[in-house]
């Protein structure tokens, strides 16, 4: 971007709200250096943004259109400072300069001093907003408020990059994390780029993994804990190219990449896993009420093990449950977290309500899942029409939304 801009405080707030609503196409006025609310408009589609830009051309308005999936990405596209520097060092760049090439007039000097003061003020506002953004981003990823003062101190130092240490507990197990921050190449703004996690999982095995923040979004610390304990997490993923999409993500502990991170397995929509349908095979009491059902679904999507009540014909029992997208089922445990076997689970299924063919298919899934706990080898998906390779969608699909995605 040749020209630099500064976003006003109120515009920054409006931009966050609009982008969160899905209005990702942005039209901004290129005729002004200081962008206020009236200089930037947000639209859900490129066509609407382009139409607005074409219909609003005048001596003081000329709109360019960009796309920004997050406030972080928007800020990256608006570096500032170069424009003012040019005005301070090149008199011909400023309209108040005498056309004959004489020295600056008093009015020009006053103007430049005033504009420099404005720039300093805007720089202060941007740094403050950057700090607020980082605090919010860190908090949203599950690291709480404690790192706020350290982030502020590091921004004051002005280093190109810095790292912060964080210790906490999840399910009474200690987690150590190192958060990595870096300054943009195009501005003075900092971004939360990734974090390293080290913990002892529920089997007392030491596990470590790096999780990347892509355009301001990544897995939370609790989700990282669940992933390192072998469970699957349902996420909205943002590839380097293409549109966002949803998929179940699970770590493959049998394979690591060149950086020493466990490879990911992804189960996309085409894989056919429906969590609600998997739950419907069991008389889960919480699924009978919309609010409780929604809470249960969200918890399981985060990779949590959730206690539920099963309403059997003669009694109610408490079991623990987790999502299992690989086998298109849910895994059940007793109150001592011992996995229920195939026979136990079949006794708890709602057989009278199931279609015979579906019941047979689900029984087959349960049998395959039961073998998962007995065999160390990865199980290959089988069945008519399946296009699977160890639970992954093959690369020869017409669309591969996982390309370039960082978790």
Please give a structural write-up:
The chain has 407 residues and is of the alpha+beta class. It folds into 3 domains: 1-78, no CATH class; 165-271, no CATH class; 278-389, no CATH class. 33% of the residues lie in helices and 26% in strands. The chain has helices spanning 9-20, 46-55, 71-76, 82-89, 106-143, 148-157, 221-228, 275-280, 290-301, 342-348, 356-372; strands at residues 6-7, 25-29, 34-35, 40-43, 63-67, 161-170, 173-183, 190-200, 206-212, 233-237, 245-256, 262-267, 306-311, 316-324, 329-333, 388-389, 392-393.
Strand percentage lies at: 25-35%
Total number of helices: 11
The whole-number mean of residue pLDDT values reads: 80
Please tally the β strands and state the result. Answer: 17
Strand order of the largest sheet: 6-7-8-9
- Which outline best applies? globular
Rg over CA atoms: 27 Å
Which structural class matches the secondary elements? Answer: alpha+beta
Termini separation:
29 Å
Largest sheet: 4 strands, antiparallel
Q: Would you identify the regions where 5 or more consecutive residues have pLDDT less than 50? A: 81-89, 93-99, 101-105, 375-407
| Secondary-structure element string | EHEEEHEHHHHEEEEHEEEHHEEEHHEE
Helix content: 25-40%
How many domains would you count in the coordinates? 3
